[in-house]
Amino acid sequence: MAQNSSAWAFACHVSHGDDGSACIVKHDTSGSQVVAVTQTHTTGASADRKPIFIGINKNDKALMMNAVNREISVLDALPIDAFAMYAYPDPDGSTHWYVHDGDKNGNDELNCGTSASSVMIVRNNGTSAELLKLICPGRGHHVVTFTAPTVAAPTVPSRAFISNLTDGTIAIVGNDPTDSATYLNIITSINLYDADKDKSAPGSIPNGAAPHGMVYSTVTAKIYNLNNGYNSIAVIDPLTNSIVSTIPLPFSSNLLLSPDARYALGKGVDRGTNLDHVIGKLSVVDLAKGAVASTIDLPDFYPSTYRFNPDGSKLYVTSATTGKGTQKDNVRKNVVLVFDATALPKLVLLKEIGVGVANCGRRPIAFLNGLVFVPNPTDGSVSIVNGDDDSVLETVVIGPGLVTDFNFSYWDGKLYGC
Length: 418
Prior knowledge:
With about 425 residues, the protein is mostly beta strands. Helix content is about 0%, strand content about 50%. The protein has 2 helices and 35 strands. It has a 5-stranded antiparallel beta sheet with strand order 33-32-31-30-35, with no helix packed on it. The protein has a 4-stranded antiparallel beta sheet with strand order 3-2-1-34, with no helix packed on it. Strands 7-6-5-9 form a 4-stranded mixed beta sheet, with no helix packed on it.
């Protein structure tokens, strides 16, 4: 039973345009309190040289990476212009893969020149952090997924697959610490060019694949990469690093693996059918059959973030904002949808949770101690939801509203979500 009187804490970073702040929300028997991380003045650095917020350590101190020399420091005060970078937790439980989108051309010129944007692998050392390696896998936004041997597929290697949005490629990186020749090195890459979908020259890089969304299923021992530009999923064999088939999937911008690894869920939105109303889309792909099993429409709802709860019984989908004019005005900005994950491949709605407003494009979600944490960026608050009955227990104000970007800190490994 989720109890709001139990002790818990989470850390987050919020941005208001060029400036940001971090705080820790703590709860015990006396109630909830918000502890702001001490801030110092802006560094005045250019966009590619701003300090990077890594997380909050176990002593409630901020960890920051210097973008120029890549040194990581434990700080008593966090620069106002420090920014949070999205990270993928490694299955080893101690490292995070931080992904850099690059500039408008998809390049991190400071670290990778004009050929790529960076990925930084950082180890959690408890009170401090260590940069293990910086790699330049390709240009544009990255998604990372991991493979490893299992009883059912013992020959699948331990590797990280990193998609490159601007290039339309996937870089394959060794992730076995016992293999010094390949560990954290780029082994090879996959060109996602599809001759049936692309009008550019055969094998072009960049191409129109626009990969964004990738999962690995232990049920099929295959990787599923969503190519937004082609409205399809490329099925990849990690033993041969080759595309073995494709699955059509329109109106999806990401993929989420079900807890049993049997299904991949796509989320997206139709902005073109009705100029006054967007239509959110949720699709379930049966990976064993290689086909879409179900799709539902969500009128006036933009599915921002979707995650299964820790025990895999429910799927939570947060609302945010998209569209223009009347479309944007009509979008529901203050609800979370809860689906019965045990009914997959059917999508059965259990409840709509009324929360605060997200008049922005992204609203993440996190889970801890039987609770669900839902930020309300426009209101500058976080709704705390009982994970048993999905009732809102309280809403905690964390600071000024009109937040442009909200990020939970998963550095300590306790929070579950995205």
